[in-house]
Amino acid sequence: MSAPSQRPTHSLPIAILLARCPRCRRGAIFGRFGQTRESCEACGYSFQAEPGYFTAAWAISFFIGFPVVLVMTMALSMLYVPDWPLPLVVLPAILMFSIFVPLVALGSRVILLYIDQSRQRDTLR
Ligand SMILES: [Zn+2]
Protein backbone atom coordinates (compact mmCIF):
# COMPACT_ATOMS: atom_id res chain seq x y z
CA MET A 1 0.00 0.00 0.00
CA SER A 2 2.23 2.75 -1.21
CA ALA A 3 -0.12 5.22 -2.86
CA PRO A 4 -2.51 7.10 -0.58
CA SER A 5 -5.39 6.40 -2.97
CA GLN A 6 -4.91 2.66 -2.42
CA ARG A 7 -5.30 2.86 1.35
CA PRO A 8 -8.21 0.81 2.67
CA THR A 9 -11.24 2.96 3.33
CA HIS A 10 -12.65 0.61 5.97
CA SER A 11 -11.22 -1.03 9.06
CA LEU A 12 -10.97 -4.81 8.96
CA PRO A 13 -14.19 -5.55 10.92
CA ILE A 14 -16.18 -3.00 8.92
CA ALA A 15 -14.76 -4.31 5.63
CA ILE A 16 -15.84 -7.84 6.60
CA LEU A 17 -19.31 -6.67 7.62
CA LEU A 18 -19.69 -4.71 4.37
CA ALA A 19 -18.26 -7.64 2.34
CA ARG A 20 -15.43 -5.62 0.83
CA CYS A 21 -12.39 -6.98 -0.95
CA PRO A 22 -9.93 -8.63 1.49
CA ARG A 23 -6.97 -7.02 -0.24
CA CYS A 24 -8.00 -3.38 -0.77
CA ARG A 25 -11.17 -3.28 1.41
CA ARG A 26 -12.81 -1.04 -1.18
CA GLY A 27 -14.39 -3.17 -3.91
CA ALA A 28 -17.58 -5.10 -3.19
CA ILE A 29 -17.30 -8.90 -3.13
CA PHE A 30 -20.92 -9.45 -4.14
CA GLY A 31 -22.82 -8.09 -7.08
CA ARG A 32 -26.53 -8.12 -7.72
CA PHE A 33 -28.58 -10.77 -5.92
CA GLY A 34 -25.60 -11.88 -3.87
CA GLN A 35 -23.57 -13.20 -6.78
CA THR A 36 -19.85 -13.33 -6.06
CA ARG A 37 -17.95 -11.15 -8.50
CA GLU A 38 -15.12 -12.66 -10.51
CA SER A 39 -12.67 -10.05 -9.24
CA CYS A 40 -12.47 -6.82 -7.28
CA GLU A 41 -13.52 -3.80 -9.30
CA ALA A 42 -11.05 -1.59 -7.37
CA CYS A 43 -7.82 -3.65 -7.36
CA GLY A 44 -8.46 -6.67 -9.59
CA TYR A 45 -8.09 -9.24 -6.78
CA SER A 46 -9.59 -12.54 -7.95
CA PHE A 47 -12.41 -13.69 -5.68
CA GLN A 48 -12.68 -17.09 -7.32
CA ALA A 49 -9.21 -18.57 -7.34
CA GLU A 50 -10.29 -21.88 -8.88
CA PRO A 51 -13.47 -23.85 -9.68
CA GLY A 52 -15.12 -25.08 -6.50
CA TYR A 53 -13.24 -22.52 -4.43
CA PHE A 54 -16.24 -21.71 -2.25
CA THR A 55 -16.92 -25.34 -1.32
CA ALA A 56 -14.91 -24.71 1.84
CA ALA A 57 -17.34 -21.93 2.71
CA TRP A 58 -19.95 -24.58 3.44
CA ALA A 59 -17.76 -25.90 6.24
CA ILE A 60 -17.51 -22.40 7.66
CA SER A 61 -21.28 -21.96 7.43
CA PHE A 62 -21.69 -25.24 9.29
CA PHE A 63 -19.42 -24.02 12.08
CA ILE A 64 -21.51 -20.84 12.26
CA GLY A 65 -24.89 -22.55 11.96
CA PHE A 66 -24.43 -25.48 14.30
CA PRO A 67 -23.83 -23.45 17.49
CA VAL A 68 -26.64 -21.05 16.58
CA VAL A 69 -29.13 -23.90 16.12
CA LEU A 70 -27.86 -25.48 19.33
CA VAL A 71 -28.39 -22.27 21.31
CA MET A 72 -31.80 -21.71 19.71
CA THR A 73 -32.80 -25.27 20.56
CA MET A 74 -31.74 -24.88 24.17
CA ALA A 75 -33.48 -21.50 24.46
CA LEU A 76 -36.70 -22.84 22.96
CA SER A 77 -36.55 -25.88 25.17
CA MET A 78 -35.97 -23.93 28.38
CA LEU A 79 -38.19 -20.91 27.73
CA TYR A 80 -41.13 -21.97 25.61
CA VAL A 81 -41.61 -25.72 25.41
CA PRO A 82 -39.91 -27.28 28.44
CA ASP A 83 -42.12 -30.37 28.26
CA TRP A 84 -41.26 -31.20 24.63
CA PRO A 85 -38.57 -33.81 23.92
CA LEU A 86 -35.33 -32.18 22.73
CA PRO A 87 -35.29 -33.80 19.24
CA LEU A 88 -38.72 -32.29 18.62
CA VAL A 89 -37.51 -28.81 19.60
CA VAL A 90 -34.68 -28.99 17.04
CA LEU A 91 -37.14 -28.76 14.14
CA PRO A 92 -38.53 -25.29 14.99
CA ALA A 93 -34.98 -24.12 15.72
CA ILE A 94 -33.83 -25.26 12.28
CA LEU A 95 -36.86 -23.61 10.67
CA MET A 96 -36.11 -20.35 12.46
CA PHE A 97 -32.45 -20.55 11.48
CA SER A 98 -33.31 -21.29 7.83
CA ILE A 99 -34.36 -17.66 7.47
CA PHE A 100 -30.74 -16.68 7.99
CA VAL A 101 -29.13 -19.36 5.80
CA PRO A 102 -28.58 -17.08 2.78
CA LEU A 103 -26.94 -14.48 5.02
CA VAL A 104 -24.73 -17.12 6.65
CA ALA A 105 -23.77 -18.53 3.25
CA LEU A 106 -22.66 -15.10 2.02
CA GLY A 107 -20.90 -14.34 5.30
CA SER A 108 -19.01 -17.60 5.21
CA ARG A 109 -17.75 -16.74 1.72
CA VAL A 110 -16.46 -13.43 3.02
CA ILE A 111 -14.78 -15.16 5.97
CA LEU A 112 -13.19 -17.72 3.63
CA LEU A 113 -11.83 -14.97 1.38
CA TYR A 114 -10.34 -13.12 4.35
CA ILE A 115 -8.82 -16.28 5.83
CA ASP A 116 -7.38 -17.26 2.46
CA GLN A 117 -6.03 -13.79 1.75
CA SER A 118 -4.38 -13.56 5.15
CA ARG A 119 -2.75 -16.99 4.83
CA GLN A 120 -1.39 -17.34 1.35
CA ARG A 121 -2.63 -15.00 -1.33
CA ASP A 122 -0.99 -11.80 -2.44
CA THR A 123 -1.29 -8.41 -0.78
CA LEU A 124 -1.80 -5.03 -2.33
CA ARG A 125 1.50 -3.63 -3.52
ZN1 LIG B 1 -9.78 -5.06 -4.05
Structure notes:
- The termini are close together.
- The chain contains 4 helices and no strands.
- By secondary structure, it is an all-alpha fold.
- It has helices at 12-17, 55-79, 86-98, 101-119.
**From the alpha-carbon coordinates, what is the Rg to the nearest angstrom?**
18 Å
In N-to-C order, the SSE pattern is: HHHH
Unreliable sequence segments:
none
Structural class: mainly alpha
Features:
125 residues, mainly alpha, 2 domains, 4 helices, elongated, binds zinc ion
Task: Describe what is shown at a glance.
The chain has 125 residues and is mainly alpha-helical.
Helix-strand layout with pairing:
Layout (H helix, E strand, L loop, with lengths): L11 H6 L37 H25 L6 H13 L2 H19 L6
The structure holds zinc ion (ZN).
Zinc ion binds next to loops.
